[in-house]
Amino acid sequence: MAFEQWLAYFIACWIISISPGAGAVASMSAGRQCGFRRGFWNIVGLQIALILQIAIVALGLGALLATSTLAFSIIKWFGVVYLLYLGWRQWNAMATELVDNGEVSGNKPQIYNLILRGFLVNMSNPKAIVFFLAVLPQFIDTSRPLLMQYVWIALTMVFVDTVVMMGYTGLAAKVLQALRSPRQQNLLNKLFGGLFMGAASLLAMVNK
Questions:
Q1: pLDDT of residue 100 exceeding 50
Q2: Which domain covers residue 147, as residue numbers?
């Protein structure tokens, strides 16, 4: 991959990552629910899914998903149901208790649960794989070894998306510290629950 190709891809990564979506909602929800440090593990799950999606495209399996209506629909509707489930849980969540330094006290989501949640949110969006399938070939130089090009593509995407999702998580964690009353936090729970449900509705309307 020439430097000019990489630079164009680098800019595209920022545009893709900053665009609000289910991953951004999940990151803000994690930051609001348990603060920045623990919420970061949700980002880890998101990035594992991104790496796997790029690997699927690199191995040629993405073309199968792009042409199989059944496979696309199964993944899509799993994602819709999962986002609705997250929305329902967030909508009915109790107000979070904070200690004096702004950290969340009481029961916190386990780290593996946050990783799994982030992974499933990203992985259950079949449009992402189809998108990578359509976009990545534009930045690949077929006259050069492909493996290292896909490695750089994955590393670039993961770096940019991690930075952006850290921003979403940190922003929500700051909101958590500012809005401390049970009423304010219940309103936030309803807001993020509604955002998850909105993301589910958008995914439901996606077609190949």
A1: no
A2: 36-204
